[in-house]
Amino acid sequence: MTRGRFVSLEGGEGVGKSTQLRALAAAIAAHGIEVVATREPGGSAGAEAIRTLLMEGSDDRWNARSEALLFAAARADHVARTIVPALARGAWVLCDRFVDSSRAYQGGGGGLTDADVMALHRVGSQGLLPDRTFLLTVSTAEAARRVTERGETDRMGSKPADYQERLATRFAEMARAEPDRWRLVDADLPASDVTAAIMAELAEWL
Ligand code: TMP
Fold first, then answer.
1. Helix, strand, or coil here: 135?
2. Mean pLDDT of the chain, nearest integer
3. Which residues does a 6 A CB cutoff place in the pocket of ligand 1?
4. Which of 5, 90, 97, 189 is deepest in the core (most CB within 10 A)?
5. Residues above pLDDT 70, as percent of the chain
6. Which residues contact 46 (CB under 8 A, 6 or more apart)?
7. Are 17 and 150 in contact (CB under 8 A)?
8. How many CB atoms lie within 10 A of CB 11?
9. What is the extent of the structural domain holding 75?
10. What local confidence, expressed as pLDDT, does residue 158 receive?
11. 72-128 pLDDT, tens per residue?
């Protein structure tokens, strides 16, 4: 039995990650492969409970350090109980956000360095990284339009536009620094074109 592939989707708010996750899961399953579609924070019972702590309440409920620890704790449970067992039985894991979101959101100016975030990840999740990470990019105007259309705001999502731009820059820097793992995808395109572009990048493994 060969290990499955671990694929993550990253990007700011409103880039269409969840739509793509569903479409990709169906397209990969059509090849007769078991797919586990999951998300962070969450993806296991313990991690979903931590998600509630993170997503609800006032902006100042957690400081940068306690928040980073909660994300790392949620990820540790998700990795141990969902991701590693799935990969071991040969399933593909498609994950809406993973440690790179912590690097961008918690490590991108909240008082923690990238090395701090990766240290938490080493302790919590033995440093597990996806085999491939797709960075979905959209123009600022399109992202704002989609977020407004979606109409939800939660503790993590209620951030100003300049914050979203800093995030986009940070994600782009991470992608440039690790070109073997990351692929950039233009998510301003229609959803079906975005799915096709991602599937083309995964074709070598199918
Ligand atoms: P989402 O379900 O819309 O992707 O929301 C998750 C929110 O949590 C989003 O604002 C990004 C944020 N987040 C972090 O700040 N750090 C993390 O490690 C993860 C996984 C998400």
1. strand
2. 93
3. 13, 40-41, 71, 97, 101-102, 105-106, 156-157
4. 97
5. 97
6. 74, 77, 81
7. no
8. 26
9. 6-205
10. 60
11. 999 999 999 999 999 999 999 999 999 999 999 999 766 899 999 999 999 999 999
Sheet of strand 132-137: strand arrangement? 35-39, 92-96, 6-10, 132-137, 182-186
Return the structure tokens found at 171. Answer: 């994600």
Is residue 131 in a domain? yes
Residue 1 falls inside a structural domain = no
How much distance in Å is there from the Cα of 40 to the middle of ligand 1? 7
pLDDT given at position 140: 80
Please give the single-letter amino acid code of residue 202.
L
Atom of ligand 1 nearest to the CA of 40: 20
- The domain that holds 111 is classified in CATH as 3.40.50.300
Tally of domains within the chain: 1
The mean pLDDT of 173-197, rounded to a whole number, is 97
Integer angstrom CA distances of residue 144 from 105, 160, 163, 187: 18, 10, 12, 13
